[in-house]
Amino acid sequence: MAGLGGNKSSSSKSDNTKAYNYNGTQKPPFMLQILIWVITGIIISIILTNVKPYEIIATRYFAGINYSDIADFIKGIWVIGAIFGFILNFINFGFGFLLWAFIQILEIIPMELMGHEQFLDKNIQRGDRNQYTDSKNDSWEVKIAKKMRNSLSTEVLRFLIILGVCIYVVDFFACLTVFPPVQGGGDVWKLLDIIQYQQFGRIDWGNIMRAVTTVGAVQFLLKLRKVIVQIIRDLKD
Asked: Helix 155-176 vs helix 140-152: angle between axes, to the nearest 10 degrees?
């Protein structure tokens, strides 16, 4: 009886282990896999939405070119004008998409690299080695040279941080040209005047949130997707 009980206990333990391996390592939760597809779909939808402000910027840019009168003349021609208008709108969208993609890539690169373990390890190790220390006997030229030499080891990290901050600021203010931050219309300079005189009731907070969403939504969702993928990989290990 004891032997049978021992076999039963061992069999139950083995079944539990198999179930754990099946649920925990071999097959991640189904809901996480669905969540990956949902996040991917939302990212694509937001991309199509976020291109619109840059398409408007591209349209304004091309509209200010000197030969815009010629374009208006061609648009007035029957059939040819319709085809030309379609091509021009396609060009505006394409230029806007390229502008949006350029901004997004410059925003994503620092975020991805600053979260890359091997990249950070190499830069940290580079920053720790061959560092010159100041000496009282050093002339001012040598002290400056040492500071410049020591800063070269962290130049890449410093550039990425500055690039990321600057691009986000540029992207935000570019979006404010499409989403007026002041009720009744108004540019960024008018917004700065309102902030200076503390007239916060005149700020269009809805457009401010649209600009913030346009700037950060894709990056946030990409980061969320990356975290979910990492969780799935950890469950498989």
From this structure: 70
